[in-house]
Give the backbone structure.
Amino acid sequence: MAACVACQQPLVLEVELEDDDEDVGMASGSAPQTVPDDVHLNCGCHFHWQCLLEAYTVTECPACSSNLVTTSSTSAQQILCNLNNEGGLQENLDILPLLTEETYLKAYPEERKCRAFLEFCREGDVRAIVDMLKDDDEDEDDDDDEGEEKVQEGRKIDVLRYQDPIGDMQSGLHAAVLGGSREVAWLLLLLASNLDTQEFPALVFQEAGALGVMREDQADKVDVRSLRDANGRTAEDLAVEMGGVWVGWPGTGRLAI
């Protein structure tokens, strides 16, 4: 059986057992449960997923230096592999987007939370977005309490207005439109725009109140509706392209100033 070329260990990952399962395992003296963890690159090298992330910096194999990049039928660059993990075997999977993201986050770890925020916007996960924003508020309060003795690593980022440097500079509002989530769009408009409050359905305020969030003073802050992606498109431009749940939104001022 092949081993990881980075750590020379078998290409499996130990599964953390629940408390009840742990007791059974200890009583029976059975070996730890494992699942496959094998990234088989097109150069022939095998890695654990985490070992590959830790070693990868460019588009070459960290072990044999072979060029991993191929070109897709649409002329896009890709890095194909066979990935075998707990979800099963996926053949010819393009992992270049994941490797690009992880390489970027190595250089800018302070943006990891922002990228999670964009994913929540795409998924329409309002609760996760609110919880993240509340956590940020608590962190700010802690920093204020500690005063000058507290030295923060990295730069302070406005999560609500974050634009993805490796994702066409899209904002959370762009992501919400692409994900078809009007609920997230209303939340972002409430928290990060100057849209007249009379334009909001009453239900939006009711749900925001139940979640414990409300609009703060927007003076001197960028209106999220004005943000444009790398192609110069506002969230409204995307809504026009998407149609569907966004029919009736363009031209109302909800998604663009």
